[in-house]
Amino acid sequence: MTASSWIAAWAGLVPAGAGVLDIAAGKGRHTRFFAERGHPITAVDRDVSGLATTDNIEVIAADLEDGSPWPLAGRTFGAVVVTNYLHRPLFPVLLDSVGPGGVLLYETFMIGNERFGKPSRPEFLLNDGELLELVRGRFSVIAYEARMISEPAMAMVQRIAARLL
Ligand SMILES: C[S@@+](CC[C@H](N)C(=O)[O-])C[C@H]1O[C@@H](n2cnc3c(N)ncnc32)[C@H](O)[C@@H]1O
Questions:
Q1: What pTM does this model have?
Q2: What are phi and psi of 45, to 5 degrees?
Q3: Which of 25, 28, 80, 99 is 20 to 30 A from 62 in CA distance terms?
Q4: Domain ranges of the chain
Q5: Is 83 in the pocket of ligand 1 (CB under 6 A)?
Q6: What CATH number was assigned to the domain covering residues 16-164?
Q7: What is the best residue among 22, 29, 31, 45 to mutate for testing ligand 1's pocket, by most ligand atoms within 8 Å of CB?
Q8: pLDDT digits (tens, 9 = 90+) for 92-110
């Protein structure tokens, strides 16, 4: 699976050589994308069967929703990348994981996506402007979109690229 066009478009904001945290990395499309660009990557997912550890890829198996301690306590990254995943209680620790000069690249489904299929439950859909609200006062918004997309499938998405102030 190829990288999200949003992530590819804004990957250049990540400081050269800086560590990247790929949250709910899945099969690792963004893990590989950033590894190929010379970034050390930490990929976290509860199912790491699709992720291979290499010299610059650290794979962490963790359930991010079961109340366990955050597996990366005290660590910060040049970028935190989240795509197609939403668990609101993680928002504070995701923001805290962006280090000085670092960026948050976040893209997931938003309200209105229920017209096209799943996810359709409110807990999996961002509200209008929610990513803007999330970073307000702490990050500088470089780019933001809330729109319908047709590739890789029809969906309503919200996405942001924001740098820590
Ligand atoms: C739709 S996939 C997105 C994968 C990847 N970010 C991408 O865009 O290709 C959602 C991912 O969230 C992971 N996930 C769901 N619930 C999780 C949890 N409680 N803890 C950790 N990972 C979880 C799933 O295993 C899956 O890999």
A1: 0.98
A2: -165, 160
A3: 99
A4: 16-164
A5: yes
A6: 3.40.50.150
A7: 45
A8: 999 999 999 999 999 999 9
